[in-house]
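Hi R.,

Here's the chain you asked about this morning:
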Amino acid sequence: MGNLKLFNDSIRNENTQKYLNDVLGEKKQSFVNNMVALVSNNVKLQECEPTTLLFAGLKATALDLPLDNNLGYAYVIPYRDNKQGITLAQFQIGKNGFVQLAMRSGQIILLNVSDVREGEIISENRLTGEINFEWKNADERIDLNIIGYVSFMRLKNGFEKSLYMTVKQIEAHGKRYSKTYTFGTWKDDFNAMAEKTVIKRLLSKYAPLSIEMQEAIKSDLSVITDKGNHYIDNVEPETNEKASEMFKSIIEPETIEFDKEQPTE
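And here is the predicted structure, written out as tokens:
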């Protein structure tokens, strides 16, 4: 069962309010209202440790990505840590969130992603990595099986790059890097997660990363606590290392002190 009172008491305690005011200023009340509404409407989130919920919300705010499942920019996902016997809030960025951040950089003028159906790959050059596609029309492709996903970007300087992954490669990626693969977002919306995967991999490997994009890649799939980012899922080494070496977190969570005593019902 959820415990909304625990979260409400935590977000309204004096230390938390002071910290939020220092970090958010005049945006504090809007943040509090949005977080209370988000948690109130999700019993599973009410089971999460309040501090992880707050830091996930602050990270979304720092990246200016709304936590609205209908928009697909960013999410807070409850994760049960059976070893500690607690539920934690994991911060996740959606496909639309990465697209939004990429376009904000001013360096990327086109970014797109698509599924690939049977018969749409004409040829593949293993040396250059180039793949030639011949796209079916909407009526033709609707009944064809999806065999993979491809992302494409064009930079302001004219550089272009695409990244293609088969369905099997994406499934293997999800199973390797996500502990919630069998019951989380991967299970609920595989298509959205597949699109996010090819976009994130394309950006992290080939795009000029703004500080904001670096922070997004670093924070995605993490539980944020007073000790910093802790990864539930196994973040790809090249992605996490690239981001973490270049800058510090936008939010400095170690400066906050929450009340040790939790209210009882």
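One quick note: The first helix runs from residue 4 to 12.

Cheers,
M.
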